[in-house]
Specification:
Length: 38
């Protein structure tokens, strides 16, 4: 049970980090695109 809970937490954490990373890359790309447009 402890292993399952730990595994679930790891999956949730990995998903959260991935989402944060994607959001960061998207925002950086948007800013870069705006700089190019200007």
């Amino acid at each position: 049970m402890r292993f399952l809970k730990s595994n679930l937490f790891n999956i949730l954490f990995a998903t959260f980090v991935t989402l944060l990373f994607l959001l960061y890359v998207f925002n950086k790309g948007e800013i870069f695109g705006r700089a190019l447009a200007n």
